[in-house]
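Sample pair:
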Amino acid sequence: MIGVFDSGHGGLTVLQAMVDALPQRQFVYLGDHGHAPYGNRTPDEIYALTIAAVEQLFALDCRLVVLACNTAAAAALRRLQQDWLPTHAPDRRVLGVLVPMVEAITGMPWMADVAPAGHVGEPRTIAVFATRQTVASDAFPREINKRAPEVTVVQQACPNLAALIEDGAPRAVLADTVHRYVAELMDKLGGQPPQAVILGCTHYPLVIDMFAEALPPGVEILSQPALSARSLAAYLASHTGLDRCPALPQPVRFYTSGAPPRVSQLASALYGREVAFEGIVDGLRAVARHETC
């Protein structure tokens, strides 16, 4: 099975694309709604919560987990892969949604973490809308500029947007919020539009129409769910032992650290079909108890 983890509902956009691209695979979704949003948490808090979630998904027999949360991927993925995974689960793998976006922007594989000798690329400006913590990590500009130094990356933190989406805020409120953050970005750019935009939070594709309306005409908005699904398919094709395909498609299982009835109601509206979340115990609850001590 393949685990998909997010701090809340946002990862459902990635999950849907992956289910569509890989219909024979079995998926388990875990939303840490009880601790959302992650964007205003410290890196150490995000790391601890991400480890707890990954452990939960491994316990549910997932051999591969995708961090469908840019904040978790930016703050925790590299540390998790290098320090925790080799000791605690060397036969399992954890991937993040940040990687496919960097590869798409730079045209270079993740393993090639420096620009090749003699590299000359076309100067471009890429805008990133993300949570406060993802912006503070500098993960997008750092990883893009290592591979494509000619690309200018301008970031715009959107501190409240994920929480508003998570809480089911009215569309008028969401649209006003998106327009305000786009206006702040355009001020940073002196009114000159970027060539492309990264929605660096998996909640944001749920309001992609609002970004498209607020941005200047002709600005490309890169689809993180589609790119992540394509990247996962390629990864599984070259790592055939990581996941066993069931004979027939299996329903996705949904888990949450929050209140299942409330989460199910909001998530069903966002996912486009009815979903029923189950409550998760142990690891994430343990982190929650530790936080209150």
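Residues 285-293 have pLDDT under 50 and may be disordered.
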